[in-house]
Amino acid sequence: MTNCHFRAPEPTLQVIEPPKGAELLAPSVNARVAAQWLEAFLHDELVVRRNVPRAVLGLSGGVDSAVTAYLCARALGAENVYAIRMPYRLSSAASLSDAQLVVDAIGVQERTIDISAAVDGYLQSETGADARRRGNVMARMRMLILFDQSAKLNALPIGTGNKTERLLGYFTWHADDSPPLNPLGDLFKSQVWDLARYLGVPRALVDKAPSADLEADQTDEGDLGITYARADAMLSQILLGYNDAQLRERGFSCEEIALVRGRVDATHWKRHLPTTAMLSNTAINEFYLRPVDF
Amino acid sequence: MEPPASVEVGVETLDVAIVQMKPRKGAYRENVRALRRVFSQLAHSPAPQLIVLPEAALTGYFLEGAVYDLALSTERIAADIAAEWQAEAGNDPVDLAIGFYENFEGTFYNSALYMSISNGAPSIVHTHRKMFLPTYGVFDEERFLSRGRRLSVFETRWGRMAMLICEDAWHAIMPTIAAIKGARVFIVPSAAPGRGVEGEEELESITRWRALLTGAALEHGVYVLYAGLAGFEGGKGMTGNSAIIDPFGRIVVQAPPLGECVLRAKVDLREIDLARACLPLLGDLGAVLPDLLLDDELPLPRAGADPASY
Asked: Residue A51 sits in a domain of what CATH number?
């Protein structure tokens, strides 16, 4: 006999925990539900409310404008969608051909308007304009053309900006964000990709690195310094109110938190109309409040 | 065998029509005319006994400051609707519940009206003023509206009913109070902006609403008549999803999220007693509720209580 008593091992119970690392994943989307909802939104705004059942949009060759074109075609019929390609002389040739893939796939009406002469006409006297100024001039020229085409075609301009670029301020104010309707503005870029796959957008557009194509070899993720997947995962949590300490606990680095939060905090103004000095008790949008569809 | 005391002979069923509608924003007269077209369809089909319409059914939901332009008295709403019903149905009777913005002597509410129309004349049975005014995120009701102060139930030919307007139904204590006061049918006019695209097969807000309503029906053994506003308002899409839910928590009939439609069903009110017999939670609640509400640890205003505690 010894003092050692044999003890049977405790039965091991299964430990069930939430999946680890989920906080680092980009938000998902049920693409079928979202597509159906956005199609209904476009139909309601264009056909029912405004009685302008035609859409005009800039088709860049990127995934955002492609998805927007697909949604408009579903909502209005392809014959009522005008896709305008607006290349600058330094734009990538692939942008034009990728945009053509969309036109060929869904049969929307297409026109190509080269903005080089108009842009250079102004910039030739602005020899010191850096890449950012030149890019903004191009974006605003495209906006100008889009609105003029909308008047000519009796069609409403449709925006193509996504939630990620809106939050990061990665767009030209009063250019990309100017159309009166924006179907993708509440979807992160990662969700737009999911939607693109569901809608059948050509793989060439879905798989390529996103680019504003304002400079040679430019990519969005290169400009931003973070991948869309990572930025979307963090942004979705920032919007819910998570503070920096919580984000660090969830696996984000101090550098990427500073980068993303810094861009969001520095660009609130870009997501608003111009700041108007309030002088009365009837200031518009302060005291005098009417919804956009009133 | 005698019928249950709570159900009168001859009124064992209730023929309900829920009108899921999409009003034009701010166009009250036009929307009343649209209602008349619905009445034309309903009046001869044969006519339902009770028609239920959504929250803010004749103006749209998001009005901001325009609520002061469009809010009307209960009497005015009742008279306008009764006139439209009479134009299509003559002197045939009908009961009707509808959500609207109420102007009561310069105080403004998000209200729901229950009325009986007979021989073309409206009789206002009850007006419920929304108690929980969502004022967060996309909602801004309390900026423009005052809160209702009481959840009352009211008598109808089909037994006692209560009305819960949208967020009212999200607070479990509201259906609880309504049920304990004897309501056997909950009428829920609603305007629910859809959101959440990560769920299965539908917007997440739709799933959550369904869980709330079926849960309330099952817990208290009541019918739930849910009338959802439809259509987009400034990019915010209202998820109609009008539904009739039985006292076992089962969906009798449900509308899709988008588009206008009418839900029709003849519901068997005897099911209420059957459900309560199977799952007597309401009876249990009646026994326990006094203990819960009289608990002096609850942060409620009481004589002698420290105001900081509630």
From this structure: 3.40.50.620
Mutate: best of B135, B232, B238, B241, partner A, most A CBs <10 A: B232
With CA atoms as reference, the chain B residue closest to A44 would be B232
Closest partner residue to A30 among B26, B197, B233, by Cβ? B197
Q: Within a domain: residue A186?
A: yes
Helices A228-239, A189-199: inter-axial angle, 10-degree rounding = 120
| A15 occurs within a structural domain | no
| CA pair distance B72, B63, nearest whole angstrom | 14
Peptide bond into B122 cis (omega under 30): no
Domain of residue B141 covers 13-295
Please state the domain count of chain A.
Answer: 1
Which structural domain, as residue segments, surrounds residue A88? 22-271
Q: Tally the domains of chain B.
A: 1
What one-character-per-residue DSSP string does B232-263 give?
EETTEEE----EEE-TTS-EEEE--SSS-EEE
* Residues paired with B117 in a beta bridge: B94, B122
CA distance B225 to B243: 6
* pLDDT value for A1: 42
Residue A155 φ/ψ region, left for φ over 0, alpha for ψ in the -120 to 50 degree band, beta for the rest? beta
Query: What tokens appear for A247 in the block?
Result: 């984000």
Tell whether the model's pLDDT for residue A2 goes beyond 50.
Answer: no
pLDDT for the residue B3:
47
What pLDDT digit, counting tens, does each position of A165-195 carry? 999 999 999 999 999 999 999 999 999 999 9
Q: How confident is the model at residue B11 (pLDDT cuts 50, 70, 90)?
A: confident
Half-sphere exposure of A204 (CA within 13 A, CB side): 11
Q: Do B201 and A33 touch (CB under 8 A)?
A: yes
Radius of gyration of chain A (CA): 24
Is ipTM beyond 0.90? no
Q: Side by side, which strands form the sheet with A55-58? A: A109-112, A81-85, A55-58, A156-157
Q: Is residue B256 part of a domain?
A: yes
